[in-house]
Write a structure and sequence with these properties.
The chain is largely without helices or strands and about 70 residues long. The chain has a domain of about 35 residues. Helix content is about 10%, strand content about 10%. The protein is built from one helix and four strands. A two-stranded antiparallel ribbon has the order 1-2. It is elongated.
Length: about 70
């Protein structure tokens, strides 16, 4: 079984892990529709990127079913 050479103190361990935390995501407002989107990505709400339509967004059709 492996045995540690020297014990790493809690302070030293935590200093090493200080940069491991996740950062909050960066969101920007779409110029076309105003929805939040990731920077340098197409807007998932309207399909625009850099002021141009790059994808046609189709609304899903729901059928009313009597249950």
């Amino acid at each position: 079984m492996a045995v540690q050479q020297n014990k790493v103190s809690r302070a030293r361990r935590n200093k090493r892990r200080s940069h491991d935390a996740l950062k909050a995501g960066i969101w920007v407002e779409c110029d076309n529709c105003g929805e939040l989107k990731l920077p340098y990505h197409m807007c998932p709400a309207c399909g625009y990127y850099n002021g141009k339509s790059v994808m046609e967004i189709v609304e899903p059709e729901f059928e009313d079913e009597d249950l």
